[in-house]
Structures are given as C-alpha cells and as structure tokens.
Amino acid sequence: MTARILTGKEPAAVQRAEVAGRVGGLAADGIGVGLATLLIGDDEPSAVYVGMKHKAAVKAGIKSIDRRLNSDVSQSDVDAAIDELNADPAVNGYIVQLPIPAHLDTDRTILRIDPNKDADGLHPVNLGRMLLGLPAPRPATPSGILRLLDHYQITAAGKHVVIIGRSGLVGRPLSVMLSQRPHNATVTVTHSATKDLTELARSADILVVAAGSPGLVGADHVAPGAVVIDVGTTKIGAGLVGDVRFDEIVEIASAITPVPGGIGPMTIAGLLANTVILAERTQEDKT
C-alpha cells in the first residue's frame, strides 16, 4: 500500500479564493483589509515564510505591511512596535513571527497584541474563547489541519487522534478543536516525557506530529492504514524536513502530508482567513 499524498496546494487555493471573494465584498463597500507581520531578527526560514505570507495576501487583495526589527532590539522597542500596529487603522490583523530572539519575552510579546487584531489566534483571550466554543480567530495551523482533513474527506469523528507535541502553537489548541463539535475525536496529547510513545502513536487512527524534531517518527510509530499529518518544518542544509521519516511511512500509512507543501500552505490560508474575519468584525462593530 502506498499512501495518498495530502498536499495543501488545492485546499489552500480554495480557501484563498474564498478569502479573495470576501475581501472583494468589503472593497465594494469601500473597506480595505490590511495584514501586517512583525519579523524580529534575521532567521532565514522565518524570513522566507513571512515573504510567502505577504505574497499570498497581495494575491487575495489584502494590503500587506511588513515590519522588521533587528535581532538585538530591546523588549521596550518591540512593545512600541506592537503598540503602533495595535493603533494603526490600516491593520486589521497582524502576527509576530515566532520564534523571536531568546533575549525577548515571548509571552509578554503575545499578550501585548490587541486580541481584536490577533491574526494568529494565539492571544490568551482568543484561545479562551476557542476553548469555550465562542467566536474568535482560531490558531492558523490547527485550523489548516482541520480544513485539509475536511478537503480530503477524512473524518475525525469517533477516531483516536494522537498528537505528538504540546505547544501552544499547534498541539494544545488542536487537541481542543478536534475534541469539539463537529470533529468529535478522542484525542491523546503526547510529549517528550510520555512513556511508551511508540505504542501510543501506533494506536492512532490519525497521527499528528508537531514536535519540531526532524525524523522523530518512523515506521514503528505508525499503524497500517493510519493518516499521518506532519507539521514539523526544520531547515537542514538547503531544504526543509519534517518530523516524520516520509520514505518509511509512505508505504504504511493510508495518507500522509509532505514537507514542504503539506500544512504550510494551509497555515498561510488560515492566516488570511483570520484577517478577513477580524476586518468583518471591525466593520460590524462600527455599524
């Protein structure tokens, strides 16, 4: 058996087209949509990823605003840049590209983002609303994973989903979103301290790997016929590699996402969708 390859190209294109339509609708009413990014430092993969986000935004008719700070910037200067984005009426949504340099406080930085402009859906206010099932921008990568599964008609309802990785970016929010209606999955979250990780992983109908550890998951972690979603993206040499050993697993799984070209495009499309949601909400508040 050779796995079906779940690329993000087609479902991301569908979502970007939906976004472009909504942006056009707002434009017809004289309302512009603006997405900003704040990139701190000179991390090459982050810079490439930010560039892809801006390119996608422009294609969807969204104004693209690119803010950059040097790697030795002070926390107070980062705070000031965030305050400017919070106050800028041309910015409907923005992200601080993570990771940021180690001398800066990631939690403080995220907390300073206006929840009403949180295009990544990572502010505690929005995560709390998500937990309660209330309207809020959802974290872009988990949303992209769910959208990709829906596109390929892979249902999580009644399935056992094992997530390797418990970060606030992917693992934890995804576990909540999968357990909620309409997805209705049974979710196990594993991490570096989990005992019998291989055995747990093999119990999964759907295995999501988001550990940031290249090649962590191999054939012994995957049950025949399982669906494998690889969220890992680590730059090694001239290219990106995922958390799973694709060549081993492609002959065991029923479906698998590639790296690159799997979840990455879905994350970008989700970011654009969140920006439009925030723009529409701002307009509703004004009327």
Tell me about this structure.
There is one protein chain. Helix 1 packs parallel to helix 10 and helix 6 packs across helix 7. Strands 1-11-8-7-5-6 form a six-stranded parallel beta sheet. It has a three-stranded parallel beta sheet with strand order 3-2-4, sandwiched between helices. The chain has a two-stranded antiparallel ribbon with strand order 9-10. The longest helix has 24 residues, at about 265-285. Helices cover about 40% and strands about 15% of the residues. The chain starts with a strand and ends with a helix. It is built from ten helices and eleven strands. It has about 290 residues and is an alpha/beta fold. The chain has a domain at about 140-260: NAD(P)-binding Rossmann-like Domain (Rossmann fold, 3-Layer(aba) Sandwich).
Assembly state of the chains shown: single chain
| Terminal Cα span | 56 Å
Question: Given the helix and strand composition, which structural class is it?
Answer: alpha/beta
Shape: globular
SSE sequence, one letter per element: EHEHEHEHHHEHEHEEEEHEH
Number of helical regions: 10
CATH topology tier name of one domain: Rossmann fold
How large is the share of residues in beta strands? 15-25%
- Outline the biggest β-sheet: 6 strands, parallel
Mean pLDDT: 95
Number of strands: 11
CATH class of one domain: Alpha Beta
CATH architecture tag of one domain: 3-Layer(aba) Sandwich
Q: If you compute it from the alpha carbons, what radius of gyration comes out, rounded to the nearest whole angstrom?
A: 19 Å
Assign a percent range to the helix content. Answer: 40-55%
Strand order in space, largest sheet:
1-11-8-7-5-6
Fourth-level CATH superfamily of one domain: NAD(P)-binding Rossmann-like Domain
**Low-confidence spans: pLDDT under 50, at least 5 residues?**
none
